[in-house]
Design brief:
8 helices, alpha/beta, about 190 residues, about 10% strand, Rossmann fold
């Protein structure tokens, strides 16, 4: 099977679900552009501490709007994977919408392994970030990021390697109909 020309894949999930890794690996495997323009990107570009930027974004919507607008602009060109917290909501014309899920404790363990520090602090920061993000997304866009049942595929990443997650996404992406190909897709969880 061939990949639909101009395909746009949107991958979302909360912090620690494997969003960045899975998006990058999916793009590599399918030969697509990877779009992962995030607060981390802005913090690096502007020389701002990531956690400071997150705090600024709580009271100043310009940061979310900057990131979200830029992501969608880049993704509209097609042949890409957009990995972001809100990709599945903001990229309305995505051909495939994926939500990565994992419990808070698992996500905090992954972040702790990646970034180090005191685990209890990481757990608290992850919980607080979830709460802040949820409130911000509701306020800015009226998006409840706890409700993602509309996506094409929900993947619980708890017991899966990033490669296993990518396998599921690639399998699904190759089934997207185009140019007269008429495979029937149904929503999975």
């Amino acid at each position: 099977m061939k990949l639909k020309p101009g395909i746009k894949i949107a991958i979302s999930g909360k912090s620690g679900c494997g969003n960045s890794t899975v998006s990058r690996l999916t793009a590599e495997r399918l030969g697509l552009r990877m779009i992962n323009y995030t607060f981390h990107t802005v913090a690096e570009e502007r020389g701002i501490d990531f956690h400071t930027l997150c705090k600024l974004a709580e009271t100043d919507p310009q940061w979310d709007l900057l990131v979200d607008t830029r992501q969608v602009e880049l993704a509209r060109e097609g042949n890409c994977v957009l990995g972001s917290r809100l990709a599945v909501w903001l990229l309305n014309d995505a051909d495939l919408k994926i939500f990565l899920d994992a419990p808070l404790l698992v996500r905090a363990q992954r972040i702790h392994k990646r970034e180090g520090g005191d685990f209890e602090t990481v757990l608290r920061q992850t919980r607080e970030r979830d709460e802040r993000d949820h409130a911000r997304f509701l306020k800015l866009y009226k998006i409840d990021n706890n409700h993602y049942q509309f996506v094409d595929l929900v993947i619980d990443t708890t017991e899966l390697t990033p490669e296993q997650v990518v396998d599921r996404i690639v399998e699904r992406a190759l089934k997207i109909p185009w140019n007269g190909h008429d495979e029937t897709l149904t929503k999975d969880t």
